[in-house]
Design brief:
It contains 12 helices and 14 strands. By secondary structure, the protein is of the alpha+beta class. The longest helix has 42 residues.
C-alpha cells in the first residue's frame, strides 16, 4: 500500500527557493556596507550564492534523473518480456509512488505469465497425449503445428512441422486426400482389405492475421467395432428372448395336441390348442417383420400432401384433437411412411394413460420448416427414458421391441427432418417433428375437433 508523500519534489524546490532568496537578501545587505551602488551589492551576493544554487539543484534533479532512467530501463524490459526487473523505491514522494506502481505492474505481469505458461503446458500436454490427430496448416499448405498422434498417423512418428500436408496425405491409403479436399466434416473409410474408419473435423480461422485450417482426425474403427458387437449382442438377446417366449408354448401345445389327437372326444380342446399356436406364430411373424422393416426401410417417395385429407385419414385410425386450424402449407413427404409415424406417436400418447381429449396434434409453419407437435397429459418421462427412447431395442414395455420410436426417427431423418421428445412444463410428454421445406398453397383449413 502506498504511503502519502511526506516531502514532495515541489516542496523541495520551494524550500530551496526560500533558502536562496533569504540568503541572497542577507548577503546583499551585508555587501552593501562595502559596495556602492546597491545593485553591485546584489550582484556580488548573487555570485556568491551560485555554488549553493548548483548544489541545491543537483540534490533535487540527480535522484529524479536516476529514477527516470531506471523507469525507462524497466519499461523496456517489460516491452521485451522480461518481468524480473524491479526498482528500489526511495522516499515517500511522487517518484517513490511511481516506482512502486511500476514494480507492482511488473509483478502482476510476471504472475500472469506464469499462469499462462502453466495453462499452455497443460493444454499442450492434453493435445500431445490425445489419440486424436491434430494438424494446423497455413495458406501455403504447410503444417504449422501437429501433435504426437498426427506425426504417428502421417509420418511414422517423425516430425512433420514445416512439411506440406498434400504429399503426406497422398502417401496415405486411398480416401484420405478426397476427405481432406472436400472440406466436409464426417466419417470416411480407407482401405479395402482392412477398412479403417476415421472421423474428420475441419475448421478455417484467422491466426496472426493469416488464414489457417485446423484438421482433426479421429480413428473410430475399434470404437465402431465395439459398438457394433454390443448392438448385435443386444439384438441377439432380444430376439432369443422373444423366440423362446413364442417357441416354448408352441412346442408345449404341439405336444398337447398330439396327445389330444389320440382322444376322439377332445376336439374342442384341440381347436383351442391350434388357435393358440396360430396366435403365437402370428405374433412371432409380426415381431420378426418389425426387425426386417427397421433394417430395410425404403427411401421416401416424396409428394405434395393435402393435410386436411391426410389428417382426417389418420383420425379414422387413432383419435386426437387438433389444437389449431391446419396451415395452408404444401409439404412434400412420403404419405405411407409419414402416416405410420404419426399413428405410432399418437398411439404411444394413448398408452401414456391420457384421456383421448388430452391427446393433441398441431401443425404450424416455422420459417421454411413444417413443425408437428404431439402432446399428451400423462406422467411424462424420466431423464433416462428421454435419453434412450430413440435408441433401437430400448423399451419400457414388457412386450415392447424397442423399435417403434427408432423407426419413426429413421423415417423423419430420411425426410431430412428431426424428431425430439421433451416433458411438458405442466405434465405429460411432447413429441416434436420438424420437416424441412414447404411452399404456400391454397388455404385448406380445418377447425379443431
Amino acid at each position: 500500500m502506498d504511503s502519502k508523500p511526506r516531502f514532495s519534489i515541489a516542496g523541495r524546490i520551494a524550500m530551496l527557493a526560500s533558502i536562496l532568496l533569504t540568503g541572497l537578501m542577507a548577503l546583499a545587505a551585508a555587501a552593501s556596507r562595502w559596495f556602492d551602488p546597491w545593485w553591485l551589492s546584489w550582484l556580488v551576493a548573487s555570485a556568491a550564492l551560485i555554488p549553493l544554487l548548483w548544489l541545491g539543484i543537483s540534490y533535487i534533479i540527480d535522484p529524479l534523473v536516476a529514477t527516470l532512467r531506471a523507469l525507462k530501463d524497466s519499461a523496456e524490459s517489460l516491452r521485451d518480456g522480461d518481468f524480473s526487473v524491479s526498482i528500489v523505491a526511495k522516499g515517500q514522494n511522487e517518484l517513490g509512488t511511481l516506482v512502486r506502481a511500476q514494480n507492482e505492474l511488473g509483478g502482476a505481469l510476471r504472475t500472469e505469465r506464469q499462469t499462462l505458461y502453466q495453462r499452455e503446458l497443460l493444454l499442450d500436454t492434453v493435445i500431445q497425449t490425445t489419440d486424436m490427430a491434430l494438424v494446423l496448416i497455413n495458406v501455403q499448405d504447410r503444417i504449422v503445428y501437429s501433435n504426437t498422434a498426427a506425426r504417428q498417423l502421417f509420418h511414422q512418428g517423425r516430425p512433420i512441422n514445416g512439411l506440406e500436408l498434400s504429399p503426406l496425405a497422398q502417401a496415405m491409403p486411398e480416401g484420405f486426400v478426397e476427405a481432406i479436399d472436400t472440406e466436409t466434416n464426417g466419417l470416411f473409410t480407407i482401405g479395402k482389405e482392412d477398412p479403417q474408419t476415421y472421423h474428420l473435423s475441419q475448421q478455417r480461422f484467422t491466426l496472426n492475421a493469416q488464414p489457417h485450417r485446423l484438421l482433426l482426425f479421429k480413428h473410430l474403427t475399434k470404437e465402431l467395432s465395439r459398438q457394433e458387437a454390443a448392438t448385435w449382442k443386444k439384438v441377439i438377446r432380444v430376439i432369443s428372448h422373444e423366440l423362446n417366449n413364442s417357441l416354448a408354448p408352441i412346442s408345449s401345445l404341439a405336444h398337447s395336441g398330439q396327445l389330444l389327437l389320440e382322444k376322439a372326444d377332445q376336439k374342442a380342446q384341440l381347436q383351442s390348442v391350434l388357435e393358440t399356436i396360430e396366435e403365437r406364430s402370428a405374433h412371432l411373424k409380426q415381431f420378426i417383420g418389425g426387425y426386417v422393416e427397421f433394417a430395410r426401410l425404403p427411401a421416401p417417395r416424396l409428394q405434395a400432401i393435402d393435410w386436411t385429407e391426410f389428417i382426417e385419414r389418420i383420425r379414422k385410425t387413432v383419435s386426437f384433437r387438433l389444437t389449431a386450424p391446419l396451415p395452408d402449407l404444401e409439404t412434400r413427404v412420403d404419405p405411407g411412411q409419414f402416416e405410420q409415424v404419426l399413428i405410432n406417436l399418437i398411439k404411444n400418447a394413448h398408452e401414456s394413460g391420457s384421456r383421448p381429449d388430452d391427446i393433441t396434434l398441431s401443425v404450424r409453419s416455422s420459417g421454411d420448416d413444417t413443425v408437428f407437435l404431439i402432446s399428451d397429459a400423462g406422467g411424462g418421462a424420466s431423464d433416462e427414458v428421454l435419453q434412450n427412447a430413440l435408441l433401437p431395442f430400448y423399451s419400457t414395455k414388457k412386450s415392447g421391441t424397442g423399435l417403434g420410436l427408432p423407426l419413426c426417427r429413421e423415417i423423419v431423418e430420411a425426410h431430412g427432418g428431426r424428431l425430439s421428445l421433451a416433458n411438458r412444463s405442466g405434465h405429460g410428454l411432447e413429441v416434436r417433428l420438424v420437416i424441412p421445406g414447404h411452399t404456400r398453397s391454397a388455404p385448406t383449413l380445418s377447425q379443431p375437433a
